[in-house]
Write a structure and sequence with these properties.
This protein is mainly α and 191 residues long. It has a domain at 59-188: Orthogonal Bundle (Tetracycline Repressor, domain 2), CATH 1.10.357. It is built from nine helices and no strands. The chain has helices at residues 9-23, 30-37, 41-48, 51-76, 80-89, 103-110, 116-142, 152-171, 176-188. Helix 7 packs across helix 8. The chain is elongated and about 60 Å long.
């Protein structure tokens, strides 16, 4: 008879995801993981595999969660231009919170060159996020809120990469006023 788990795997995975997001893959120890997750080491291995497997699962969870939040926020907005601003501003840290940036972007800079599985997950997440930017640009062009003379694909690529850069600057602790200026400048590209 199989033993019932004494912990919620989803809660444990979310806790691991947050720790990896805060510290990165290399700086997160197994001891820190089991302490944050509130489980025994054996349970962690039995449920999630080794540290790398846990990281990849956490990265998948992050991408899925962020995508759902971003798509839901974009769907609530009929104005494509306003939805883009909201998307870009969602990267800005709130009052007093640690500037974590984006786990996908953090993974791209930390692991993508040496871990093909992590790189593939980052690319998949980036492709979905860039598609959302493209969809919002097209929506804005259809309603006249974004200049029609722009090639939507080219503009989406440019804005997406500016958004990635914004998230890197969030992680490095750039001043909020500077981050807001970056968003304002990104929005001028829509004129």
């Amino acid at each position: 008879m199989a033993r019932q788990k004494e912990f919620d795997p989803d809660v444990a995975l979310d806790r691991a995801m947050t720790l990896f997001w805060e510290q990165g893959y290399a700086k997160t120890s197994m001891q820190e993981l089991v302490a944050r997750m509130g489980i025994h080491k054996r349970s962690m291995y039995d449920t999630f595999g080794d540290k790398r497997a846990l990281y990849l699962k956490a990265l998948d969870r992050y991408a899925e969660t962020v995508e759902q939040v971003n798509v839901a926020a974009a769907e609530r907005q009929t104005d494509g231009r306003a939805a883009l601003r909201g998307l870009f501003e969602s990267a800005l840290p709130g009052g007093g919170q640690q500037p974590l940036g984006c786990l996908s972007v953090n993974t791209a800079t930390e692991l993508a060159l040496r871990d093909p599985d992590a790189a593939a997950r980052v690319e998949k997440s980036f492709a979905r996020q860039q598609q959302l930017v493209l969809d919002l640009i097209r929506r804005g062009q259809e309603t006249g809120q974004i200049a029609a003379h722009h090639d939507p694909r080219g503009l989406a690529l440019t804005l997406f990469n500016a958004w990635v850069g914004l998230r890197v600057r969030v992680r490095t602790g750039a001043p909020r006023a500077q981050l807001r200026q970056m968003v304002d400048d990104m929005m001028t590209m829509l004129d």
